[in-house]
Amino acid sequence: MSALHVPVESMTFANGLRVVVSPDAAAPLATVGVYYNIGFRLEPRGRSGFAHLFEHMMFQGSANAGKMVHIRLINASGGVLNGSTHYDVTNYFEAVPSNALERVLWLESDRMRALKVDDENLRNQRDVVKEEVRVNVLNQPYGGFPWLDLPPVAYRNWPNAHNFYGDFADLDAATLADVQAFFKTYYAPNNAVLLILGDVKPADAFALARRYFEDIPSNSAPPRADVREAPQVEERRGTVEEKFGTLPALAIGYHAPERRTVDWCAAAMLDQALHGGRAGRVYRRLVLEKQIAVDTEGGIHYPMGDVFDYNGPTQLVTRAYYKPECSAEQTIAEFDAAIREVQEKGVGADELAQVKVKFRSDYFSQLEGGHGSSVPRYGLMHYLACFTLFDNDPNLVNTILDGFLAVTPEQVQGVAQKYLVPHNRAIVIRQPAGQGAGR
Amino acid sequence: MSAAIPALSAERAVVWPQRTRAKFANGLEVVLVESHTIPKFTAELLFRSGDAAALREAPGLAEMAATVVRTGTASRPSRRIEEDLRRMGAGLSASAGADSSVISFAGLSEFAPDLLGLVADLAQNASFPADEFERERRQKLEEVKIERTTPGFLAGEQLRRVLFGSHPYSVVAPTEEEVQAYRREQLVDFYRQHYHPGNALLIAVGDFSAARMLEQVEKAFGSWRAGKSTPSQNPAPPALNGRRVYLVHMPGTVQAQVLVGNLAITRKHPDWLRLALANNIYGGAFNSRLVVNIREQKGYTYSPRSTVHSLREHGFFSVHAAVCNEVTAASLTEIFYELDRIRALPVGDEELADARNYMSGVFSLGLGTQDGLAGQLATVYLNELPEDYLEKYRDRVRALTVGDVLAAARKYFDSANAQIVVVGDRAHVGEQAALFGAVEVYDPQGNRL
Q1: CATH number (domain holding residue B422)
Q2: Where does B148-195 have alpha helices with state H?
Q3: For testing contact with chain A, the best of B2, B16, B287, B422 (most A CBs within 10 A)
Q4: How many folded domains does chain B comprise?
Q5: With a cut of 0.90, is the ipTM above it?
């Protein structure tokens, strides 16, 4: 069985910044990431969408690099850059020829040290974010489904349940003072990890990191939102109108086992057995055999991430687009039959063996790419960051597979019985406008 | 901390990996490249025939054939194929574009012989089971309905229709009626005519020894029976004089999808890199004029970009932006202002140097992943570019001048004759669109209103 060992070195500076380096000189390329331990789940109440709006503000200028300077310098160095907001982290990353590494670190340190933005920048990016919401959600068939539709039905605690992209009224209410306060609270070095990957010697990487980041002052630890959910006692349901699309769709989410437990590992194997491509049980039954649905997909923390990149409650989600002549109840009944089969008969030893090979293979691909081919090692960067911020152990990247590969058929059956029960789930139906709720 | 921007350090040479090439007696071309990033490999089995080759028979036929290819062979039913793939840790997809059909696959290197064997089985012995065909046809029918509720798709479909006229590139997807009319025998015929080794190219990149991999490829594909394709002759696209506006009316939309374009050149044309550089400066990068103007200065849109598209016989240039309804005319004004500016005035030296560095640097990022390299190799070999294309690319980009950009912009950013597509609610954007030329209004099904 092939394995992959990734070299990982890490240290913590006096200001609390954690630095993780993973060298690989095969090509003259470097990938740099800065991850802050703040995501849309943790944003302030009454400021829905703020974490994401703030992510945009981080590209608007810092003390020594004004508006467009970050973007221009990275592009002019032959590289690409972006940022993204997740449930529990926000990241900023660059993929560049390795001769630009020092420049990248200078830029990232400059905006960790001092954001320099004004009201005009805020107005501009508020407009840009609104167009982003329109193009991705309001003006697209199935926009936001189910990542924006499921949380308000599945959860009761505001941090998990609110509109992550933001209500326009909340976006409008955001002020420059909010921006600077958010920066001060959450963007301190002690709430971040810096990742340097690729064509660099670890000693050089740490020295450069020290030069640019070590004297950035730390702050007191930010308040941590209480993201716990009260236990659910009955099935939850919701309906959302589909404005453009022609097919009804539904999403089913079960609260997933706690991260880093045996049940969590077993749930990941169960997920692969259910959702792993066309061989998965859900696709096979709903699309191939019963032909009720035209497509199904799913996963743990789907579709915003995967089994590793969250830190709090999440769900095992299935999304199905089904035929207009079928009802939601028929679709759910067939889905339930697929689940019941696992609960009653378990998964076969051969099936579990296949699922483990696929899980291992997919994990390798994530480490190498994970963001198309334009950002080498994005996935490695992402997992190193999550394992550092959530688990305080970047080396998990080399050992985390072991727990999944040790799962037994009995454990898979056990988590199916324990977690995939109606009172632990939420269902959202996306119903095309003008159609009744199933015929 | 210093306020000075650190200079770039000395560049390490970009070294492209050696290609191992072979052509088997049956005509199959093979390109193998070692890349040991992860213990996997990725591959594409490409056929030089796509939807354009089958348009007269049925629009979208190559895509439909590719969709059904994976659902059964003489010896493997659908479920066995999918479970065999999972057993090898493999992923596989089959699809078609205008010019080619492709079976893309990736898996763990330890299972390479088995995976090659499975793909060879699909390429030679696909059985097109009648029930699988019926199921996939129904799914395709729902897919084409949803496509025509998607503003970006509708804009692209309309622009291709306008730019290519009676050339097969004018059709990007079938209608519902055309999908209804598909017959299984049409798929089988397409497969027989086009899925043969003389029409194929196999590219594999990954963690293997090229010599050993070549043996495995030969074992899997060496006995594939040779075939013959006849290239089709296609009519020329129309010459379009003057701007025209095509409004696709989608009631209830809260944004206008704007797409502006004109015919340009293919990747084999000697001006291709000049045009690509001009495009990067105009709107092809985050740090480009158009993005700075209508996103970072004016906040009209989230992700405006311009693109140069190369198909086998023709190429085209396009600019797209999803903009707030109220600024549809304002956005078009800026799109044309920036087109006219880059046509009228030479770019600055620093702007030129930045863009050259961007193009040559980003090109090298392809070295970082097996997928990235495979994509670059497919570009080279499908377009029959020179053998040293990868090695020479960065130097050729770095030698481009201010004059090259100006000449390319003047020749290929055809501002005066650009065709304008707006997908939106005509009640909100109709009058604004009419400011830019005579308007034809269509519904999402392509019917003139």
Answers
A1: 3.30.830.10
A2: 151-164, 176-180, 184-194
A3: B287
A4: 2
A5: yes
